[in-house]
Design a protein that fits this description.
The chain has 278 residues and is an alpha/beta fold. The chain has eleven helices and seven strands. It has helices spanning 3-15, 58-72, 90-104, 121-129, 150-158, 183-192, 196-199, 201-208, 221-235, 241-255, 260-273, and strands at residues 30-34, 39-42, 80-84, 108-112, 134-139, 169-175, 212-216. Strand 4, helix 4 (121-129) and strand 5 (134-139) form a beta-alpha-beta unit.
Length: 278
């Protein structure tokens, strides 16, 4: 083959790469799905904290743990939407629950799917369906804008079309929005549509397809301080309660909010000032 033909063949292969070979799911307990080309990249070490350090979300924690245990054991379980306040541990809870249940029931994997890659989800499900492992398919910060059509791809996960959702796949998503779309978008479509009740039904009903809705709400000051104390105790950082309270309240005042994320950021700063390696 002459050089120009070789270059043309290589260019065509880049545009349309060969199908992904069967992934080695024994390589790790966590994977990230990438496209262009399709591949499941193993994550040897997941960034997460222990479930016991997640304070103030006890009800959501207990429900999600039990739902995940049911799925891992091969009995019916629901897709879950974790929605609500920013920084209150939605994604941290999903990762922590996976670690807890995977230690109890070997063979449970977690696969992270980016929102912008939802159109490729049918190809991903094809690989997961063919495996003997069980998978939590996780999409963080899921939401849709005015002209976003990605939500249609999500139905392949939640409903599964004619084949149905793979029996060995469960979908967990986090979002700041209960209905996965901005409120002003809902109101705008209702006000301009010929049939207001039907204008947003397709998109709003997407969240109805989740069997579990777990709400996360802003924490109060006592919960905020309890989070920080939990981090200190877990990492062996000794500090007087009064000193901790004064510094932590000053920190949250400068941030203008309280949340699990703010509590961790304060603890990270405190640990750094004390010379503690995390």
């Amino acid at each position: 083959m002459s050089d120009p033909l070789i270059r043309i063949a290589e260019a065509l292969e880049r545009v349309s790469p060969p199908p992904m070979s069967a992934p080695d799911f024994g390589a790790a307990d966590a994977f990230v799905w990438h496209v262009s080309p399709d591949r499941l990249e193993p994550v040897p070490r997941v960034s997460r904290i222990g479930v016991d350090l997640l304070v103030g979300i006890d009800r959501a924690r207990d429900i999600l743990i039990e739902n995940t245990r049911q799925f891992a054991r091969g009995v019916p379980a629901n897709n879950a939407l974790l929605w609500g306040a920013r920084g209150m541990g939605k994604s941290s809870l999903v990762k922590a629950v996976h670690a807890l249940v995977a230690a109890e029931v070997p063979g449970l994997k977690i696969v992270e799917l980016q929102r912008e890659d939802l159109p490729s989800v049918t190809r991903l499900l094809r690989h997961l369906r063919a495996s003997d492992y069980r998978f939590l398919l996780f999409c963080d910060d899921l939401s849709f804008s005015q002209d976003d059509q990605h939500y249609k791809s999500l139905k392949a996960v939640l409903d599964g079309g004619i084949e149905g959702r793979p029996e060995n796949v469960l979908f967990y998503a986090t979002s700041n929005r209960r209905h996965l779309m901005p409120r002003d978008m809902i109101e705008n479509e209702r006000s301009t549509a010929i049939s207001p009740s039907e204008a947003v039904e397709e998109k709003v009903s997407l969240s109805d397809r989740f069997g579990l809705w777990l709400g996360f709400h802003p924490c109060d000051q006592d919960q905020y301080l309890a989070m920080i104390r939990g981090y200190c105790d877990a990492h062996g950082l000794e500090i007087d309660d009064d000193e901790l309270r004064a510094e932590a309240i000053e920190w949250q005042a400068t941030r203008g909010s309280r949340s699990g994320r703010v509590a961790w950021q304060f603890f990270t700063d405190l640990a750094g000032r004390r010379g503690l390696r995390l």
